[in-house]
Specification:
Helix content is 44%, strand content 11%. The chain has 448 residues and is an alpha/beta fold. Strand 6, helix 8 and strand 7 form a beta-alpha-beta unit. Helix 2 packs antiparallel against helix 11, helix 3 packs parallel to helix 4 and helix 7 crosses helix 8. Bound molecules: 3-methyl-2-oxobutanoic acid and zinc ion.
């Protein structure tokens, strides 16, 4: 049976850009939009044209040059915003006007200073105005998750009747939980007349670290569009992260049996480009795109990885465009990883000689934390200089040889990931076979 297709709506250029330090100029926005196109997103929210002339220009430039995805522009529920948004996107191959109006009592009372009745009327009127300009209209009841549910249903019903084609349910302040969010979407689907004609969308902020979980709960409750950003950038704690949502669906199709049009191999490049443009680095332990996401330092982990990446990686680095798994050589590294790196540097050791290199390596790693190849080469030179002869390649059973011997004898284990062979069928580039070169127990201890 075909899996439901989830529309990936990227708002890195609008909600993402609203986060401190993330503003981009026209040329940078255009460059990122072209990368989002390569990434395969379905909708690019290019900006908020009324906000500034620069934003208007960026949305117009993206509309003119990025032709495959839908290009959306944000507008508040006022005529000037809607008209300006349309001016910016009317040259797009597939334009969308995105109208936002808050529906929670807190926002109505303190921010907009209008009654619920006035809010209902504004919502209806603004969608009608947008619809007269553009066939594709999205409506967002801002702060939906803190809105009175009966009133929210009333507003959603009114905008659907006025011609909205997508209804987005923002958890604007990141207050919701997966249970609450899923329940709210189910209530809307049950109570709102005509809701089956429109696409329901999620838009979750990460103030409690639940943005991705809430988005997934929304999809399970029937949403077919997810609004998200690269690296999870966005207002305050950010938006739901695109790469986490997409990879959750790829790695756990048993739980999330949905398809997206995302080209996984473009994820890392998109993340790096965004970080480079905004100069906001990706946190090292960020899922999928952080520099440690595929790095293994602990000896036991490195040992397992070298035997079979399935031991510690649930997806291949290549499946998200990360060039390689990186075995970081530090004080927790074991002899197995050290021997492999030495061999990659052209030096092969027997067990006794490796012990000596390893002893020095641990002292060095304790001091400098991360041992680079240049350090390792120096250390090897020292060992040589002290008369510890490095044996020729044939003297020892080197790791690479052991690996290729094992491949030849079909001992190599390169299994696809359970249930989730990457789209390109590739497996991790770390491919070290079970070399029958020392016992299992000893090998385990080496990893420590
Ligand atoms: O968080 C929010 O409510 C928004 C809307 C504009 C969709 O970003
Ligand atoms: Zn938002």
């Amino acid at each position: 049976m075909d899996r439901p297709r989830i529309i990936i709506f990227d708002t890195s250029l609008r909600d993402g850009e609203q986060s401190p330090g993330c503003s981009m100029n026209v040329e940078e926005k255009l460059r990122l939009a072209q990368q989002l196109d390569r990434l395969g997103v379905d909708v690019i929210e290019a900006g908020f044209p009324i906000a500034s002339d620069g934003d208007f220009e960026a949305v117009r430039a993206i509309s003119a040059s990025v032709r495959r995805p839908i290009i959306a522009a944000l507008a508040r529920a006022v005529p000037g915003d809607i008209d300006r948004a349309w001016q910016a996107i009317q040259g797009a191959a597939r334009p969308r006007i995105h109208v936002v109006l808050a529906t929670s009592d807190i926002h109505l009372k303190y921010k907009l200073r209008i009654t619920r009745e006035e809010c209902l009327e504004k919502a209806r009127e603004s969608v009608r105005r947008a619809k007269a300009l553009c066939a594709d209209v999205e409506f967002s009841p801002e702060d939906a998750t803190r809105s009175d549910q009966d009133f929210l249903c009333q507003v959603v019903e009114a905008v659907v009747a006025a011609g909205a084609t997508t209804v987005n349910i923002p958890d604007t302040v990141g207050y919701s939980t997966p249970e609450d969010y899923g329940r709210l979407l189910r209530i809307l689907r049950e109570r709102v007349a005509g809701i089956e004609k429109v696409t329901i969308s999620t838009h979750c902020h990460n103030d409690l670290g639940l943005a991705v979980a809430n988005s997934m709960a929304g999809v399970q409750a029937g949403a077919r569009q997810v609004e998200c950003t690269i690296n999870g950038i966005g207002e305050r704690a950010g938006n739901a992260s695109l790469e986490e949502i997409v990879m959750a669906m790829r790695v756990r199709p048993d739980r999330y049996p949905y398809e997206t049009g995302i080209v996984g191999e473009q994820i890392y490049a998109s993340s790096q480009m965004l970080a480079e443009i905004t100069r906001v680095p990706v946190q090292p332990n960020k899922a999928i795109t952080g520099r440690n996401a595929f790095a293994h330092e602990a000896g036991i982990h490195q040992d397992g990885m070298l035997k079979n990446p399935l031991t510690y990686e649930i997806m291949t680095p290549q499946s998200v465009g990360v060039p390689d798994s990186r075995l970081v050589l530090g004080k927790h590294s074991g002899r197995h990883a050290l021997a492999l790196r030495c061999e990659q540097l052209g030096h092969q050791f027997d067990r006794r000689e490796l012990d000596e290199v390893y002893r020095r390596f641990v002292v060095l790693a304790d001091r400098i934390k991360k041992v680079q190849d240049s350090h390792l080469l120096e250390l090897i030179q020292e060992v040589c200089a002290q008369g510890k002869r490095i044996p020729p390649a044939s003297a020892a059973m080197p790791y690479a040889k052991a690996a290729s011997a094992a491949v030849a004898s079909s001992n190599e284990v390169q299994l696809p990931f359970p249930g989730t062979a990457p789209a390109n069928g590739s497996t991790s580039s770390i491919t070290v076979a079970f070399a029958d070169y020392h016992g299992e127990q000893e090998d385990y201890l080496w990893g420590v």
